[in-house]
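Lecture notes, unit on protein representations.

Consider one protein chain, 299 amino acids long.
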Amino acid sequence: MCHVIPFELDLAEAVLALWRDLHPDWKWLDDPESRARAFEAGESFERTGYVVRCDGNVIASVFGACSRDESWPRNRYIHIEARPEDIAIDWLGPLLTGFRDADRGRPGTWQIISPPQASRPVLVPLLEAAGFTYRMSSIQMQWEGDLVTVPDPSPAHFERYAGGDPEMDRAIGDLHNRAYRASRVTPPVKHEDLWKPWPGLQTREYVLALEKGSLVGYAEWFVVDGSPPYINSFVAARSHWGTAVGAAVGLKAMEILIELGYHKMESSVLSTNAASMKLHLRHGWRAASEQAQTYVRAL
């Protein structure tokens, strides 16, 4: 017999053991600060959690996090962790109903779930029965080579940036949020949190495109232990769509990484972003795999 109970901190070790078993690659589980953020509400997110116990063992966790940012569309991100064989409508159905009822009084809320790949065959039919629909995927991109040609972004110019200027951090956060608000499923960035490190991080920088002192584009890249460098985004301000800026910052980041000795890189593109996919393919990237599917229930 399985029981759903609200998460309390005395259950944290059992939940962490489940997550470690399901995701041995989650290095952040070894970092106390990262673990605390996963369980506790904070200034940025409210958090609601449940665990499923069967014969005294924790077999599943379901956490819902909702941004406190009133300037951003209201989303609730729901994370379901369980072995595929333990997923059952008997406990998942009431939880999804509870989250729906909790948010029904806030019209326009989106509830967002990205099912773990191993659980999709079991989980997706249950999500669809509960009113969730497929929204998009994250496509993992890969690039290998020795040379890129960086277009001239004039009248903008490049600068490498590794933090230290609160005003620039705020400008990066603002540009990120304007760029990703349309997709809505990407949480907003708080400039105060921009440089929080994570386990295994070796190096992280931005390539900035500046014009008359204003930020008009950027590319972020980082290197994590044991993985190829990752270019997190190529972003151009709306005022510079159709110019060389979007491609230039990304290619400049690639050029820097090549100079540092890296000849294989990774990135990702949302399946709904045809312009970004076209840009990546034009410059030698290839689609390697589907990293995540996102399902949405609009209330």
